[in-house]
């Protein structure tokens, strides 16, 4: 597979890019070099390689979610600027 100058012009048009003839030529060469390099992957024997979703094994580093005792209402309200009926009172934001 290769990229033609027409393909580069089409993509540049879609991206609303104005390219000079020299830029079009350079991009055509660079994209073809990338595709040529990618085609080398087809030479690899992957028959006995198991498909993976990630190149390295991942493990969950988070701790298990476990219920623990929390602060009492009295302790929480010690830090509240104002309190009413056992709840933190804040300024009204809606009228």
UniProtKB/TrEMBL annotation:
This is Aspartyl/glutamyl-tRNA(Asn/Gln) amidotransferase subunit C. HAMAP family: GatC. Belongs to the GatC family. GO terms for molecular function: asparaginyl-tRNA synthase (glutamine-hydrolyzing) activity; ATP binding; glutaminyl-tRNA synthase (glutamine-hydrolyzing) activity; transferase activity. Keywords: ATP-binding, Ligase, Nucleotide-binding, Protein biosynthesis, Transferase. It is an enzyme of class 6 (ligase). GO terms for biological process: glutaminyl-tRNAGln biosynthesis via transamidation; regulation of translational fidelity; translation. Allows the formation of correctly charged Asn-tRNA(Asn) or Gln-tRNA(Gln) through the transamidation of misacylated Asp-tRNA(Asn) or Glu-tRNA(Gln) in organisms which lack either or both of asparaginyl-tRNA or glutaminyl-tRNA synthetases. The reaction takes place in the presence of glutamine and ATP through an activated phospho-Asp-tRNA(Asn) or phospho-Glu-tRNA(Gln). Pfam families: GatC. It comes from the Bacteria. It catalyses: L-glutamyl-tRNA(Gln) + L-glutamine + ATP + H2O = L-glutaminyl-tRNA(Gln) + L-glutamate + ADP + phosphate + H(+); L-aspartyl-tRNA(Asn) + L-glutamine + ATP + H2O = L-asparaginyl-tRNA(Asn) + L-glutamate + ADP + phosphate + 2 H(+). Heterotrimer of A, B and C subunits. Its EC number is 6.3.5.-. The keyword Protein biosynthesis applies. The gene is gatC. NCBIfam families: gatC. The keyword Cytoplasm does not apply.
